[in-house]
Amino acid sequence: MLRATDISKAYPTPRGDLRVIDGVSLTLKRGEAAAIMGPSGSGKSTLLYILGALDPPTSGTVTLDGVDPYTLKEREQAAFRNERIGFVFQDHSLLPQCSVLENVLTPTLVATRSNGGDEQRAREIIAQVGLADRLDHRPGELSGGEKQRAAIARALIRNPMLLLCDEPTGNLDTSIADSVADLLMNLHATHNTILVVVTHSAALAERFPIRYRMSNHTLAGA
Predict the structure, then answer these.
(1) H runs (alpha helix) in 129-162
(2) Is the pLDDT of residue 111 over 70?
(3) What is the rounded distance in angstroms from the CA atom of residue 156 to the CA atom of residue 84?
(4) What is the pTM of this model?
């Protein structure tokens, strides 16, 4: 279970604290999927980074499977993210010098624990995202949709409990965005993740059974 309780985030400025998130709470169980919409600057991405143990809240708590990652030491927190959380960003963030297979395997290189068979699992996930014939291709040889598919495969390589996506279709044209959205929802169901997507796309958000809207730095049902 993912649980955020009364999350607030503020950044210090010369004119006083700049409040970005104010009193946000949500609870999602494994297998549930939620979309978060809202205008630019409303705090959507900041909330995603807090949920993903990348940016601590100013106040409030976040727990995933009963663990508050912000109480962990730095090395333990990094291991927690690596094992339990997958990220997909608007920019695929693939390493240009590495092949699709190598990019998908990068989270396993820093893993503190491995179940073995990482390469075989990578090949299976790459096949699931439709890139079996692109294993040895570098990002410069892929289309925009293929790059995002590779990024999704990389996010799933460690079998995370929580999958967080920040505008995963934002840089794609409509037809490719639809195919990536189909893939994301199918993989979510197959891998039984908790899925949270931040998006400006109403079409993408409508696919989600749970929808929220960020407004005035707070979260409400859409």
Answers:
(1) 144-156
(2) no
(3) 10
(4) 0.91
